[in-house]
Each structure stands twice: as C-alpha cells, then as structure tokens.
Amino acid sequence: MAGRCLIIYEQSNNKEEALKSAVEKINEGAGGRVPELILFFSSPHNFYYHASRLYENFPESTVLGSSSCICLSSCGFGPTGLSVMAVFDGIDVVAGVIPDVTRYPMRYAKDIANDARKVAVHENTICLEFSAAMLNCEEIVLDTLREGLKGTDIPVFGSSSGLDPDSIMTYVSLNGVVYNEACVYALIHNEMGQIKLVRENMYRPTIVSFTVTDVDLEDRKIYEIDGKNAVTFLTEKLGIRPKALKDYFSEHPLGRVMDGDVYTVSVNDVDIKNGALCMAAGIFNRTKIVVMDPRDDFGTVWRDTALEAVKEGEFFPAFSIVINCAARTEYMIEHRMIDEFNDALTDNYRNFIGCSGMGEQMDFKQLNHTMIMALFE
Amino acid sequence: MRNYNDGIVRTNKRCIGCNKCVSKCPVVGANVSVLKKGRPTMAVSSDKCINCGNCVEVCNKQAREFIDDTEDFFKAVRSDLKVSVLIDPSFYILYKDKANGILGYLKESGVNKIYDVGFGAEIAAYMNAQYIKEHEDDPKRAFILNYCPAVVSYIERYRPEMIDMMIPVQSPAISTAIYVKKYLKDDSALALISPCPSKKDEMLSTGNLISYNVCISNFIKELEGINTDAYVAQSDLPSRDVGVLSSVTGFFGEMIDIYFSKEYSSLRKEGIDGTFFDFVSMTAADETPMATYFDIISCQVSCLMGPGISIPMQDYEHVNKTIRELRKKNIGKLGDKTSSEEIYKADSEIMKDLDPADFVRTYQSKFRQESEVPESTYESIFNTMYKTTPEKRNVDCGSCGYSTCREMVGAIAYGYNRMENCIHYMNDELLMRYYTDDLTKIANVEGFKANVKRLYDENPQKEYVIGVVSLNHLNLINDLYGFSLGDAYIKKAAEIAVKFTSKGGTAGRLGGGEFLICFENSEEELKRADEATTYSFPDINVSFPLSFRAGLYIDRFRDETIEAIINFASLARDKIEEDGVSTILIYDDELQEKLAAEAMITSQMYKAITKKEFAPFFQPQYSHRTGKIVGAEMLCRWIKKDGSIISPGLFIPIFEKNGFIKTLDKYMWEQAFIAAQNYSSDKYKKVPVSVNISRVSLDEDDFVDTIRKLDERYPIDKSGLHFEITESAYSSRQDIVSRKVNELRKMGFKVAVDDFGSGYSSLNILKDMPIDILKLDMGFLRGRNQENGEIIIRNVVSMVKELDLEIISEGVENIEQAEFLKYVGCDTIQGYLYARPMPAKEYEKLILADASDFNNMKFENEMKEKGVFY
Questions:
Q1: Are residues B161 and B227 both part of a single domain?
Q2: pLDDT (tens digit, 9 = 90+) per residue, B673-731?
Q3: d(CA B782, CA A320)
Q4: What angle do CA B607, B611, B616 make, to 5 degrees?
Q5: Minimum Cα–Cα distance from A105: chain B residue
Q6: How many domains, chain B?
Q7: Among B147, B388, B492, B669, whose Cα sits 20 to 30 Å from the Cα of B39?
C-alpha cells in the first residue's frame, strides 16, 4: 500500500496501455482506499481518453486534469504518456468548473464562493486551477476566482493548459468531463500541515525599462511604448531589426513591475505591420516594463530554489505540484537541461508531479517563463 | 495603432479632443483617445460603441458623424434595382405636409412599394403583449421591450444578465420587413427611412432583411433642389391605427399597455443610464418587480429627435401639434372597445394569420468581461499623474469626460484614454517640468533652489554645504559609447547624487554632466564627501568608473544668495583639472583671492587693449660669432596706467582659458608689423623681430587672412618679421598647422618652432613640419641627466644644421650654458644672460645704426666682464 500519495508516470504513448497500467498502480497503492484527489497530465491527443477513463475507474474521487506539453514527475518525465498523482488521505477537496471563460466567467463567482464555504478550514488551503489556454482568458478567470474567494485568504495556484507541437487546442477536465473553454479548480485543504507556494524566476531585470503607453488589454497587445510605436521604439532602444525582435524576446522576456515585484511575461509574437507586441498576458496601460536577462545561475537555479523551498531539511513536503512554463521547458530541452531540472526536483521533493503549459497563475497574476510550486507538508 | 472609426459612428478631422463625447457616452471605452500627428483626438472603437449617437448630438464641432446607406439606396433606385421602402412613423410626423410629395417622388424615381413601419409596430406591439401574457407567470421575471436598437446593443454588450429579460420579438421595423417579405411576398430589396443610425446594427443582427438604412437627415439632404410637391403618392401599407404614433415618446409602450388592465404596469425611460439598468436588473429579481415591462429608449426625446434627424428646434412646434392631432384621430379608431381584454381579443382576430414564430428575435451576448484593474495599477497611475493625496484623487471635475478621477484612471489603464487628457495632471506636469530635470527626473536648477530654500527655512539653525559636481570624461563616454549610454551614465550619477544627499540634503542636475548637491555642514558629511572616490556601473557596460570634480561652498552665514553660492562652488570646481580622479575643492579665502585676481584680469582686459596697456617688449638675440645683435623676440607686457605691471605668467593662462588671447595676439601681430616697418628705415640695423602665435589663434580659421591683411596694411620686407609657434601647437592637427605655416612661408615670412625641448619633444617636428628656425629651449640642460641633455643638444644642433635650418638658443641663463652652446656651434642666443626683455625705446637704441658701435662696445664689455666673450 502506498503512503499518503502515489506518483505514476507512464511513458507509453499508447493511451490504453498507459491508462491500464496507471489504474492498476493506483489500485495497488490504494490498498482499499479511495483517492481523495487524482491529478493527471497528458498530451492533448490522449487527453479525452485519459480524463474519461480515469473518472470511470475512480468515480468517487475528484479527478482533475490538464493537457500538458510535457509530463514531469518524480517517477520520470517525457512529452508523451500520462502522469498521475493520487492523494489518498490528509486532504479535503472541493472542485468546480468555471465555464464561459472567454466572455463572462464572473457569472460563476457565486459558485466558487459556495464551494469555498464547503471547505471546512481555509487555512492551509489552496485553489488549484487549470484553464484552457490560448483564449486570453486567464486574467478574467483570476478576477473571478478572486471574487469567489474574497474573504477566504485562499491563494490561487495554477496553470494554463499545454499542448504539443501537433495539437491546436488545449483541454482541462474535471470528473471525466473535458472542456476546451473552461477553468477547472479544486480547493484543496491540507489536513496534515502547511502548503508552501514558491515562485522561481530564471531571469533578472536589466536597466532597460520603459512604460507602455497604448495597449489593447483584451487582445494582449502593446501598441505604444513611451509614446512611440512599440516596434520602432524597441528596435531603436535595443538596436535590433524588427524581424529579430521575436527571437530576442524568446531569450529576454519582459518583466512587469507590479506591487514592488517583477513578473515575467512572454512576448508571443511581434506584429510588425501594426508595430505591436503580442503578449502572453494582458498588460495594463502605463505599466512599467523591464527587459529581462538570463540570471547568472541560469542553468542551476532550480536546484537552489528547491533547496531554499525545503530550507535544507526544515520543510518536508509529502507531495508537490510543479508548474513549469512551456517556454522554459522548451528552452531546457533545447539546452539539454531538462534531466537535471527533473532530477533536482525529484531529489528534493520525492513525490512531485508537474505540468508545462502556456502560463502560470499565482498571486492572482498571470505569469510566463516562470516555475511555480505548491509543496504540501 | 489599433483600428478605430470603422463602425457606424466615426470621428472626422474636425475633432479637437474636447472630451464632450466621452461625457455623453453611456459606455466606457467606446471613445478612445489617440494621437494623430501629435494632435489628440477621440476615435470611436466599434467593438465598444452601441451607436446611440449621443456623441453625434453633443459634438458642437460636428466632429462625429455616422454612416448610413443613403448614397447606395439612391444609386440602387436609380439603377432600376427593385427596391421597396419602409417609412418610419417619425417621417410622417416631421414632414406631415410634404410626406406624400416625397413618397410620390420616390415612386417616380423607381421605388417599387412603400410600407409604413407603423404597421409593423402594431404587429410588434401585439406580439410583445402576447409574449408577456404567455410568460407572466414566469418566476422572478420582468420584461424589456425590443424597440431601440441602441438599447439592445447596450444590453448585448454590457448587460449580459439582462438578455433574458428582453422580449424575443422583432422591432417594429424588422416586423414590417418580415410581414412584407413573407406575407406580402415582396421580393424587393428593402430600405428603411429612419431617424436612427443604429438601425443598421439591428439590420446586421437580424439577417439583413433590410438592405439599406437611410437616415432621414441624409435622405432629405439628397432631395434638396427637387420640387417634391410636384409628386404625390400614398403608402402601400399604412398603419392600421395607433402605429402611426409608435415613434413618439413612450407610445410603443402605450400600444402594449392597451392590451393590459391597469394592474399591469410599465415603466418608460429615455437615455441609457447605467444606474437605471442596475435598478431594472435588481427589481427584475424581486418577487413582484416594480414594472411588468420596461420601455427604454436611448434618445432623450424619443425617435423624433434621433441623431438621424436634423430639423431646427423651432419646427418642433408643428411636430407637437401633429402628434396631438394624430393621437386624437387614431386612439379614436379603437372604437368602443373599452376593456383591454376586448382590444386584445379583437386584435388577436386581426393577427390570427400571423405566425408568432416568424417574428421571434434572438439576442446574443457580445459581452466580454474586462480584467479588473488592480489597485496597484490605480495607485501607480494616480502617482504618475501627481495625484498623491485623497483630495487630488477626488477632484472629479469631469473635464476629461469621465465622472470621477478614478474612472479616468481606469480608462487610462485599459488604454482608452491618456493622462494628458486630465487638465490637472497637465498643470502639475508643467510645474513639475519647470522644477524637474527631464533626463534624470531629479530636480533641475530651479527645483534645486526651491528645495534648498525649503531646507533652509525648515532648519534655520543648520549650516549647509552646497556643491557643484562635474562628471569626468563625460564627453569621452558620449563619443565612445554614444549618447544613449552617456545618458544612462548621467542617470546613474543622479542616483548617486540623490543617495549621497538623502540624509537631510537635496540634489539636482545643472545640465550635461553637472550636478548640484546640498548637504548639512558636519564633519561626518564632509568626511563622507571626501571619501567618495569612484563608482562603477557594470550594468550599463561603460568601462569608465565614474569620477568627478566637485567645488564646495560652506554656507556658514547665509549671507549670500543661492545663485551666488552655486557660482562660488562652480568657480572652485573650475579650478580642478579633469584627470579621472575624484577631487573636491572647497571655496576658501585663498581661492577667493586667486579667483578675484582672475576676475580682475578678466574684467579689465578689454579696457587694457583700448588704453594700450599691453606694451611690446623686445628681447634681443645675439650672435656668438660676431657678438652683435641679430634679432629680437617681441613679447607682451601689461603695464597699467598707474605703473603697476601684471605678469604675463598670470594673465596669459587666463587669456588662453577665456579666449582673449586671440584678441591680444592680433594686437601684438599688428605691433610687430608696425615695429618691423619702423625698424626697416636706414636709421636702424636690419635685424628681424619675431612674434608669437598662440595655439588658440592658430586654430582660428581666419588666422592666415589676418596676417595677410596686416601685411597689406603694413607692407614690410618679409625678412624683418618672423613668426614663432610653440612646439605643442604642432603636436596636434599637424596637417592643418602645416598648411597654415606653409601659407605664411609662401608670403615670405620665416617661421620658427618655439620652445623645442621644453616639453616632450618629437623629432618628427623636424622631419614633418615646414619650418625655418628652431628655437631650442634650455629644458634639455635642466633637471636630471644633464650629460644626456648635452648629447641631445649637440646632436640636435648638428641635425638642424644638416637640415639647413637656423637655430636660436633661448632661455640661456648662465655662462656654462652659453659656453656649451658656443662649443656645439649654436649661432644665435637669447636669454637673461645677455638681455632681459626691454621696452621699445630701449631696444631702438640698441639697433640704431649710428649708435650701434657704442652700444655694442658697451655690451661687449659687459659680456667680457661676465666672461662670455673673449
């Protein structure tokens, strides 16, 4: 019988084979217990199958999942297959769905508030959420969650779902139902101790900073910087041709200066025709932006973060959830760092599961190029 | 730039950005402030605009306009396309007497059929009543009539929670179109003559049953010049009774009211007011809503004053009269049916052949939840706009068009507006710019003075130090790294200045790389200043560490103005050489005296020229071989009228610094020409006079011209005047110097290189420069390694002779030097050992032809006594 938590990674891209093996392992590890929560990540291709069948097999559990561009776990990692975390005891889970995320999720804030009331204790509770990606919906989903969780002090921790290069759509699911325009969430109370949230940034702000002066918040576009056409401004400021800007920003993301902190945001594309930057998060007008440089410890920062998070043996996570931005994952794969990254997390957290998507959510903010972790004591 | 002005309502070039449209607009974000060629204008975002036309009405610059299909309609009619026309009831009310003539003209022009929208209004009113009756038992339900397209657009875009309240029945115009198409089988393209630009929106949302929205104002304009009275026609489908009034305020609601007993209530509202919609939304959720149905239209005084109508206000008198007449006439048509049930029953009979499903309207939520502006963003924008106090954040003057400052800041955050549209921000910005340095955002001179004054006022007991600090090597950094990094360097320096003065002091930027600092006069602070050395900024990739020159003034008595103190500190700073080391100089008594002398020289130099206080002195040059005078160097002496003499060692460096040396040079050259001319007479021995050209004058573009003009003015034998140029002047810009020297030589003057050996001499001068005479300084014989010096002089003399140059040794002060020079073969000697510089009169005696023997004998005797000559 497994302990409190069981992590499974099935590398096979054969969806039936991967699911069958995972179900067998959960049943074996359960030892007669019903998992309180089953969290899973898989590629968009196999997602529907895995979501529906996992719930069929564990109808009494809360089964929450998201498509991901890679499955990370303490049992291995890979772009294919299925990763599952089954938590058998020590948590209290209430889950829900926010539909209509592209237009009016706020309509469902009351449902979230109702769910929050069902969680007996708000201390040591987080709202784990996964939103379908590429819909520019994360900010309004976060607003909705903030409204629904108002007065509870429950923090939000989550990810936009991910996809592999062959897919065009991302998915999330709750209890066997798959959505491509929704956010699924689970309010998880840890009965056994604290939940620690960690944010890691691989980039440091440079002195190159500016203020955005014309934006389209809904389309996440920056049209003007310091009163000038954004592309013209940046080509002059950075001394880079317009066509080279996109590549530049893939290694030098931007940072939003907010609340005395810097939050990384990716530049998805450069709209040369309209002189605009297409961002992976909504940027409010008059936001101060800094160009980010890779940190000096770029290739090893995660080991330090992992150590810092557990305070070198003072904090013992029973299980952890890691969300690593798809842009970071892509970079790590390209630079052959992904093994070291997964190993560093495994060494420090033992039981962890991770996904990689199109954005990270923490502190009610949409982030990019960032890793966030939730460590459950 | 995003795309704007691509919907029904648009901004034209007349916009001056006055914000009236913003203040009248019922939604946030439909008006977007954009800069067009630097000029602020309010563009229309079609995604947000509900086409209510409020902005069209309010704009007294006629900068807002709407587009309709008038032009296309007439084109279609005139091209024989089959077109039928729907006439809004407002047309009959507004153009009562002319209406039939206009209809006649339309028919004559080719319009197929003419239908009254009043007819469709009667259908729509009945269908609405039917729907309400069928759904009156729905729990928690109130109804909103579909009448005004702007209201529908508002609800679809901004009130998604109210969509379920909308009665799913088509509007009167669309109901008419449906009836015409389906029941009358008219397959013509339909045009609607209406008072409302927003009807186009409705047409697009309901399957384009109507092809042309022709606004009455444009329609009438198109008819200008046509005598429509010559035509006459009637509607092919007139309204049955009350429909003719359906465009009058609240009358569409009344048309529905007549189907209901008095226990039902309806509520009418003109204008789109968010608060009213909140109220409707709220009451709809009550067990017993305040009204069974709500009749809301956008225009303030019904469709009769819609934005698509432009008739003068005075004409409304007849409009009101027409309404009264029509009301009397048509209400009467309801006959003796006194109860609502009877009327409903009778109309149900009339409408029995109509299928209600044909008249169903569906609504679509076009709402998109906006991200909430975080408080930190509000805070940041408020602060950027200098709205740092609750009072400033709640000015709520409305001049920006928004009701509150917070609403305006929200609009800025969303990108709908610009800070520059807030008049209070602009006022504060002007003040701030007056007091703030644009680059570094720290105080400028005015700001610094104001801050110092505040410090002084707040701390009357304290003494302060005020300093002027200049960055070293800024020009070099700008040259090497560009102005962008130079600016970054300056910003870093500003940060240091601010940090340095953060303990109860203040800092400002004077301009360029110059900063002002003020800090308390204490041992600790002065020590901190003294310990400040260099700073590095690896993050801006400038390899030069920051060093500075600082002049400080300790203000002990507060008896000088701040401007004067800045001046004193600046003078002290100017006394420091720029050498890459951070240096501080305090303005004290000694410096003050030195500076006072400098100031005196500067203040008197111009007068001295006019008063001829600069006197030419001559230092003779002698031949060793003959012991006779062979020439003289003309030197300048400043002898004031009171007889006091100012040393050239004092005034020359000052003149070189302030540029006056150029004036003095020209003066002395003229004196030299005059002297050469005077001494060319037979009265005098023919010996040349040489005069100096300073490095500063040599750099002047008109230098050669000046000499040429003097030569023309004072024609002389060129052998009587030589020019001396210091060795250091040759070391830079050799090509230019060579060219100028050659020009002099071409004129026939000999040119000497002066002070060879006084600095770090280069033999290249001998090789490259076009000279005639080398004036050898005795520097080689001073200091250490005199033996080496002698070897060098011996070889230089030998080389010079081989190069066929003349050589003059200058600065010869003792017999040993003279002996040595004689030994190595140097022909001509100048120096204190032989003669000091002397006034012209004394010199003239030396060169008098008939007195020369005596003088020379006297001189030779003196020399013999000194052991120079044998």
A1: yes
A2: 999 999 888 888 889 999 999 888 888 888 899 999 999 999 999 999 999 998 777 76
A3: 83
A4: 110
A5: B369
A6: 5
A7: B388
User: Which residues in chain B have Cβ-Cβ distances shorter than 8 Å to A221?
Assistant: 2
Place of tokens 């239908």: B115
CB neighbour class for B705 (10 Å; exposed up to 12, middle 13-18, buried from 19): exposed
Dmax (CA) for chain A in angstroms is 65
Domain match, A290 and A326 both? no
Among the residue ranges A204-213, B183-192, B779-788, the one predicted with the least confidence is B779-788
Q: Which of A294, A318, A345 is the last residue of a domain?
A: A294
CB B52 within 8 A of CB B422: no
A333 plus A191 within the same structural domain: yes
Task: Name the β-bridge partners of B470.
Answer: B514, B549
Q: Which residue among A207, A229, A258 places its CB closest to the CB of B376?
A: A258
Kindly provide the b/e burial profile for residues A346-372, where b requires at least 16 CB atoms within 10 angstroms of the residue's own CB: bebbbbbbbbbbbbbbbbebbbbbbbb
Instruction: Evaluate whether residue B809 is within a structural domain.
Output: no
- pLDDT, tens digit, for every residue of B60-69? 999 999 999 9
Query: For an interface test with B, which of A285, A291, A363 has the most B Cβ atoms less than 10 Å from its Cβ?
Result: A285
Helix (H, G, I), strand (E, B) or coil at B466: strand
Backbone angles phi and psi of B712, in degrees to 5: -70, -40
Q: How far apart are CA A228 and CA A207, in angstroms?
A: 19
Place of tokens 């910003």: B491
Does the beta-carbon distance from A286 to B412 stay under 8 Å? yes
Contact B822, B624 (CB under 8 A): yes
Asked if B466 and B544 sit in the same domain, the reply is yes
Q: How many helices (H) and strands (E) does chain B have?
A: 35, 26
Q: CB under 8 Å to A131, separation ≥6 — which residues?
A: A101, A137, A138, A141, A158, A159, A160, A161, A172, A182, A183, A361
Q: Pairing mode, if any, of strands A261-265 and A352-355?
A: unpaired
Residues 364-383 of B with CB under 8 A from A: 365, 367-374, 376-377, 380-381
Residue where the block lists tokens 């920003």: A249
Token pair of B325 as six digits: 């007449």
- The count of structural domains within chain A is 2
Q: What pLDDT, on a 0 to 100 scale, did the predictor assign at position A312?
A: 64
Q: What is the DSSP letter of A182?
A: -
CA-closest candidate to residue B413, choices A287, A143, A265: A287
DSSP annotation of B166 reads B
Burial class (CB in 10 A: 0-12, 13-18, 19+), B649: exposed
Task: Please state the pTM of the whole predicted model.
Answer: 0.72
